Amino acid sequence: MDTFSITPSMSRKANALDNACMESFFSYLKTEIHQELRNVKTIEEAKQLIHDYIRYYNHRRIQGVLDYQTPVQYARAS
């Protein structure tokens, strides 16, 4: 970790508050593309599927917690 001057997040066990955003994202990812991930044959296919989902999540997926906007729309309005 010192090589890149990165300080890892080290909360107590079972305390996901510092990772709440990522935990939420991964939950959506696993739920929404579960079937597609099961059919993946190569690492490259998996990478592309996840890349496509991240793009969808940020640019097209409307979220109630963000005043029914996409994350990109919400960030631009802030």
From TrEMBL:
Signal peptide: none annotated. Transmembrane segments: none annotated. One of its GO terms (biological process) is DNA integration. It holds the Pfam family rve_2. One of its GO terms (molecular function) is nucleic acid binding. It comes from the Bacteria. Residues 23-75 form the Integrase catalytic domain. This is Integrase core domain-containing protein. It comes from Parageobacillus thermantarcticus.
